[in-house]
Amino acid sequence: MQAYQNQSIKIHNSLSGKKEVFEALNEGHIGMYVCGPTVYSNVHLGNCRTFMSFDMIFRYFKHLGYKVRYVRNITDAGHMVDDAEDGEDKIAKKARLEQLEPMEVVQRYTLDFHNTLAKFNLLPPSIEPTATGHIIEQIEIIKEIFEKGYAYEANGSVYFDVAKFNKTHEYGKLSGRKLEDMITNTRELTAQDDKKSPQDFALWKKAEPQHIMRWPSPWGDGFPGWHLECTVMSTKYLGKTFDIHGGGMDLKFPHHECEIAQAEASYGQPPVRYWMHANMLTMNGKKMAKSTGNNILPGEIFTGENELLSKPFSPSVVRFFMMQAHYASILDLSDDAILASEKGFTKLMEAFDAISGLKTGDKSDFDVKAWEQQCYAAMNDDFNTPILIAHLFEAVRHINLIKEGKESITATDKEALQQTINNFVFEVLGLEQKAGNAADTEKLSGVVEMLIQFRKEARENKDFATSDKIRDQLAELGIQLKDGKEGTTFSVS
Ligand code: AMP
Ligand code: ZN
After folding, report:
1. Are 131 and 224 within 8 A, CB to CB?
2. Are 222 and 206 in contact (CB under 8 A)?
3. Where are the alpha helices (DSSP H) in 356-410?
4. pLDDT tens digits for the chain (493 residues)?
5. Which of 45, 95, 360, 468 makes an SS bond possible with 411, Cβ 3.0 to 4.6 Å?
């Protein structure tokens, strides 16, 4: 018997706006698709939050014994600047500005994405398909949408006919919009627009002569519309209807709405049973975003090299900070908030370390079984990690009382307590003890600062052999020194 058979999970389904009891389409198996990054620049902490939320969900399903096929794509073509369909492709623009091949841009930022998520201890998805690897499938589905009568060609581009689709389907049902309102609130088409209506969206865009990312198609050279890749890759690997589709809240409209329209138009069935949306990480009360510059890169938080931060924070502390908020709530990043998380995380780790040394007795003052059930109940209630963490701190309180001799615990309960904390803290929340030890991080920074000072003195005495030796040997250990106007800083890779 698998653990999931004893648990009933409720998920907030963005489509119904309600918490629903989760039932897997195929017993014991879960198909989950999450929109991945557009790889044209470094991922920021906001992006990381969304991927961390779905990593926690993936981990919990696996913990319960489900076989999960988790598909998270890489958008390496088709996503236009400012999401406007007449703009430039984000990757092509970066390639032009930096005089790189588009695929060099893709490679660079895909590597950055993988390295960053690995630092935060995210598990790799089961499949990580790319948009450019599925051009043929995208062309095929456009043909199918054409055959069903929901697409039209204009000047080498192909558009989805939203008004026609809306006659027999409900465009806007995910984001709670009505087509009539959208029509009233949107701008008029300009003379250059090929679309019949502003609500229509591109399935295929004609490539102008200067456009470097282009593929041949029945409609001429061009490239696929952004929404199409997710419809194609999710259904190719998970089936025409699958269990869970996730992404950040900002993707609900138009991206996910268009995905629903494309899938229903071509396959005649709803693609997703549970739509899940993770909420935004904000900074100074505003959404963290690449385009506005209101963001922090993970590297800056690990080294503390950002004016918002008073010190560096380890990946596990940042992850713990994220997990202290429910995935569907907005979370604001501030130095004070992460400092508080660091304190909490250290307390949790210290208590976990203390369990093995606890003396046992013939009775328990702490009902470990009931507490474990509360931990599961929190996770079953739409993955409520803040409530789970509150329960973990209830255990911390008991561990400390037992340590002080004010409460007692049996050997069996002690073992169960250690196992349950291990399950929830490391396996489900994905925290790591080694990287999370704040005391060690502080010690490391103290030692490196001392060496920076020795190096400075050596340079002042023109002893460059010693100063270079300090820099080089630190580099061998993966600690890079950077000399700047304000003095020398360091980063750990
Ligand atoms: P992008 O690379 O811009 O397509 O974004 C990748 C993922 O990060 C998407 O699921 C976005 O919804 C999500 N995302 C973008 N900005 C934020 C933010 N400030 N907080 C949380 N998630 C975000
Ligand atoms: Zn997507």
Report:
1. yes
2. yes
3. 368-380, 385-403
4. 899 999 999 999 999 999 999 999 999 999 999 999 999 989 999 999 999 999 999 999 999 999 999 999 999 986 766 555 666 788 888 888 888 888 999 999 999 999 999 999 999 999 999 999 999 999 999 999 999 999 999 999 999 999 999 999 999 999 999 898 888 777 666 656 789 999 999 999 999 888 888 999 999 999 999 899 999 999 999 999 999 999 999 999 999 999 999 999 999 999 999 999 999 999 988 999 988 889 999 999 999 999 999 999 999 999 999 999 999 999 999 999 999 999 999 999 999 999 999 999 999 999 999 999 999 999 999 999 999 999 999 999 999 999 999 999 999 999 999 999 999 999 999 999 864 455 566 678 888 889 999 999 999 999 999 999 999 899 888 788 888 777 887 777 6
5. 360
Q: Separation of 328 CA from ligand 1 center, angstroms? A: 13
Nearest CA to ligand 1 atom 18: 46
Ligand 1 contact via 325 beta carbon (within 6 Å):
no
Q: What strands, in cross-sheet order, belong to the sheet with 67-72?
A: 67-72, 29-34, 242-248, 272-278
265 lines ligand 1 (CB under 6 A): no
In this structure, which residue's CA is closest to atom 2 in ligand 1? Answer: 37
Q: Which atom of ligand 1 is nearest to the CA of 37?
A: 2
Q: How far is the CA of 307 from the centre of ligand 1 (A)?
A: 23
Tell the residue number behind the tokens 């329960």, with chain if given: 391
HSE-CB of 127 using CA atoms within 13 angstroms: 17
Neighbouring CB atoms inside 10 A of 275's CB total 22
Place of tokens 């899938």: 263
- Given a contact cutoff of 8 angstroms between Cβ atoms, the answer to whether 68 and 22 are in contact is no
Q: Answer yes or no: is the C-beta of 322 below 6 A from any ligand 1 atom.
A: no
Ligand 2: centre distance to CA 193 (Å): 25
Q: Which ligand is nearest to the CA of 83?
A: 1
Place of tokens 């713990």: 320
What is the Cα–Cα distance from 109 to 41, expressed in whole angstroms? 6
* Closest C-alpha residue for ligand 1 atom 17: 46
Nearest to 40 by CA among 86, 95, 116: 95
CA 126 to ligand 1 centroid distance, Å? 20
Q: Give the position, in ligand 1's atom list, of the atom nearest the Cα of 295.
A: 19
HSE at residue 394, side-chain half, CA atoms within 13 A, is 15
Q: Give the sign of the dihedral formed by CA 307, CA 313, CA 315, CA 320.
A: negative
With CA atoms as reference, report the closest residue to 194 among 146, 246, 152, 236: 152
Structure tokens at 227: 């929404």
Return the best residue to mutate from 83, 245, 250, 251 for the ligand 1 pocket (most ligand atoms within 8 A of CB): 250
